[in-house]
């Protein structure tokens, strides 16, 4: 009897519990529903920094949970009452952008009317133009299509306070550097920038030096 009492009293709450972070209560509820019980290593390392508003470079393999790391940071920071584009997530492909948008929408369930709009190439412009006229809080898309809307004056990025470059190495491999530069030029300099990448070649290092402010670098080498 006393043995079992002792063992239960020794069960400490793991430091990787999402509830150890000061996240909006809806986010904690949604994580629970999604079956995310503890943070993955990249989430545990990067989220506390992201939540304090720092620029973060996150390096971890595919499948390590990078989407929720930046998705939670983005949703926590978002001011739902301001119906302006406040965050932009850049992804290398439409498939990845769709996955990211889906995860953000799931994480955002129950938070009053958060509008996530995807803007990717390979689909007709018409519906995207219509959606842009209705407005959004968060844009997830590929750099080419976003610059397309920018150059036609359909996208106002002047209220963006968070930029996320997801799979930055692949974006540069695909030749999106110029498009990324054009998008950056339309955003306030005073913003939080997060960059995620599986690898960290020289070109990425150079990019982080020019577009980020004193970034903290988090590297997770996972064995699985
Ligand atoms: P990455 O972007 O690093 O490749 P993803 O964000 O796509 O990884 O996540 C990989 C998988 O892990 C997804 O199926 C996602 O639902 C799941 N996942 C992410 N974070 C957690 C967590 N804390 N607990 C359980 N599953 C998670
Ligand atoms: Mg990913």
Automatic annotation (TrEMBL):
<feature type="short sequence motif" description="Q motif">
    <location>
        <begin position="16"/>
        <end position="44"/>
    </location>
</feature>
<protein>
    <recommendedName>
        <fullName>DEAD-box ATP-dependent RNA helicase RhpA</fullName>
    </recommendedName>
</protein>
<comment type="similarity">
    <text>Belongs to the DEAD box helicase family.</text>
</comment>
<feature type="domain" description="DEAD-box RNA helicase Q">
    <location>
        <begin position="16"/>
        <end position="44"/>
    </location>
</feature>
<feature type="domain" description="Helicase ATP-binding">
    <location>
        <begin position="47"/>
        <end position="218"/>
    </location>
</feature>
């Amino acid at each position: 009897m006393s043995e079992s009492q002792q063992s239960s009293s020794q069960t400490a709450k793991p430091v990787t519990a999402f509830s150890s972070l000061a996240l909006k209560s809806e986010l904690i509820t949604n994580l629970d529903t999604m079956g995310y019980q503890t943070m993955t290593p990249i989430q545990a390392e990067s989220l506390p920094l992201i939540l304090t508003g720092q620029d973060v470079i996150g390096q971890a393999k595919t499948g390590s949970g990078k989407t929720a790391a930046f998705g939670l940071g983005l949703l926590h920071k978002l001011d739902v009452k301001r119906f302006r584009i406040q965050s932009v997530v850049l992804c290398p492909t439409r498939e990845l952008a769709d996955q990211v948008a889906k995860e953000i929408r799931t994480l955002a369930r129950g938070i009053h009317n958060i509008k996530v709009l995807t803007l990717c190439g390979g689909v007709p412009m018409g519906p995207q133009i219509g959606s842009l006229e209705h407005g959004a809080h968060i844009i997830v898309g590929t750099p080419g299509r976003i610059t397309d809307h920018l150059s036609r004056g359909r996208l106002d990025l002047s209220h963006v306070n968070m930029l996320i470059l997801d799979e930055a190495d692949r974006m540069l491999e695909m030749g999106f550097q110029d498009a990324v530069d054009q998008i950056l030029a339309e955003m306030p300099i005073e913003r939080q920038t997060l960059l995620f990448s599986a690898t960290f070649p020289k070109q990425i290092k150079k990019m982080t030096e020019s577009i980020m402010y004193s970034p903290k670098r988090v590297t997770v080498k996972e064995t699985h």
